[in-house]
Amino acid sequence: MKEEPFDVLATAYEKIFESAAKGFHNAEKKSAELLHELIDKAKDEAVELGEVSREDAEKLSTYIKRDLSEAARHMSISGRELREWLGFETILLETEFVDQLLKLADPTKVELFKLKLDAQEMPPYHTGEITGPGTLFCDQCGEKLHFYRAGKIPPCPKCHATSFHRNIEA
To answer: What is the tally of structural domains in the chain?
Structure first.
C-alpha cells in the first residue's frame, strides 16, 4: 500500500525534527542558532536520501521552526508547560517525536528562543501545511483541531476556513 503524499510529508517532518532534536541534546553548547542549523542539516539529509523533494524539505523545516517557536513563545509568555500548549494529555502520545519535543521544551531551553521571539509575530497556520502535535484553533470560528502526531492541516470541519493559530494565553 502506497503512502499518501501528506503521510510522507508528516513522516519526513517527524524524522527531520527527531534528528535535529537528538543533535541538539547531544550538543555541548545549545542555542537557537544551533537548533536551526541542525534542522537545516536534517532537512538536507532527507533530500539527499530521497525522502522528500528540496521544495518540500524547505517547507517542512519552516513548519518545524514555526512549531518550535510557537511552543517556546507559549511557555515564555504564559509561564505554562508545553502540555497545555499541545491542548491535550500527552499520555496519549507515546512516540519518540513527542518525547523529543518535551525534552526541547525544558524551561531552561526556552530562554534560548526568547530573544528571537519577543519581536516576532508568528504567521498563521494554513490548510495544506504540515504541523506537529498540538491543538490549532480556527481563526474564523474557534473550532479546535487536535493533532496527536505530525499531519496535514485540513480545512476547519465546522466552517471550512483555512487559517489557524495556536492558543497562547498569558
So the answer is: 1
Q: Which domain, by its residues, includes 93?
A: 5-124
pLDDT for residue 26: 82
- pLDDT value of residue 149: 84
The whole-number pLDDT of residue 119 equals 39
Say if CB 42 and CB 19 are below 8 A apart: yes
Whether residue 152 is contained in a domain is answered as: no
The pLDDT tens digits for 118-147 are 435 668 899 999 998 888 999 999 999 998
The pairs formed by 31-40 with CB atoms below 8 angstroms and a separation of 24 or more are 31/112, 32/112, 32/113, 32/115, 32/116, 35/68, 35/104, 35/112, 36/65, 39/64, 39/65
CA angle 100, 105, 110 (to 5 degrees): 140
Distance CA 118, CA 164 (A): 21
How many angstroms from the chain centroid is the CA of residue 159? 24
What gap in Å lies between CA 159 and CA 2, rounded to an integer? Answer: 31
